[in-house]
């Protein structure tokens, strides 16, 4: 249940980022459509993370989820910077950063979805348990990214993407 307007903005932006990020992922790269939906993804992910920094109902204080939001902001800005500057090897850096930005969003969505399941609420009752579970999910997605992103970069280098 969403208890306030900050939470509503967070959830709405997260849903938009999930959809926009998926479109960017499957769309042909370098097109106006890619740039348009990519810009939308970046704006949505910024809103997701900025609003996350203002949400404290779980522990009442800064916790690992807030640190992950800061990491997500840094990753997204890193990817955006490479796309804007277009220096040597910018494409690989852009792809890596944006892939990890989207993977982080998927990790957060997975954590939220799994914790909404009744048996998981019974299993993980404490805020510390929820944070630990969320961090473990984030680590799983980071490992997934470490395995998949080099393949994506190689495909992009060969021109197979898009």
Provide a descriptive summary of the structure in words.
With 162 residues, this protein is mostly helical. It has one domain. The protein contains six helices and no strands. It has helices at residues 5-26, 32-52, 64-85, 90-115, 118-123, 127-158. Helix 1 packs antiparallel against helix 2 (32-52) and helix 1 (5-26) packs across helix 4. The longest helix is centred in the last third of the chain and has 32 residues, at 127-158. The chain is globular, with a radius of gyration of 16 Å. The protein starts with a helix and ends with a helix.
Rounded radius of gyration (Å): 16 Å
Low-confidence stretches: none
In angstroms, what separates the terminal alpha carbons?
38 Å
Could you spell the SSE succession in H and E letters? HHHHHH
| Beta-strand residue percentage | under 5%
Quick one: overall form?
globular
Query: How many strands, which pairing sense, and closed or not: the largest β-sheet?
Result: none
Number of helices: 6
Return the structural class.
mainly alpha
Our count of domains comes out at: 1
Number of strands: 0
Mean model confidence by pLDDT: 87
Helix share, percent: over 70%
Helix and strand topology:
Blueprint: H1 5-26, H2 32-52, H3 64-85, H4 90-115, H5 118-123, H6 127-158
Helix pairs in contact: 1-2, 1-4, 2-3, 3-4, 4-6
């Amino acid at each position: 249940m969403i208890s306030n307007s900050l939470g509503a903005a967070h959830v709405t932006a997260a849903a938009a980022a999930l959809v926009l990020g998926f479109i960017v992922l499957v769309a042909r790269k370098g097109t106006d459509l890619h740039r348009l939906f990519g810009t939308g993804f970046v704006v949505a992910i910024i809103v997701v993370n900025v609003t996350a920094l203002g949400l404290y109902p779980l522990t009442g204080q800064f916790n690992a989820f807030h640190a992950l939001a800061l990491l997500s902001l840094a990753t997204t800005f890193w990817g955006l910077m490479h796309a804007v500057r277009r220096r040597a090897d910018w494409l690989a850096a852009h792809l890596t950063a944006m892939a990890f930005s989207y993977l982080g969003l998927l990790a957060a969505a997975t954590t939220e979805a799994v914790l909404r399941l009744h048996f998981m609420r019974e299993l993980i009752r404490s805020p510390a348990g929820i944070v630990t579970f969320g961090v473990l999910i984030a680590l799983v997605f980071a490992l997934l990214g470490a395995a998949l992103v080099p393949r994506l970069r190689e495909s992009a280098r060969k021109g197979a993407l898009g």
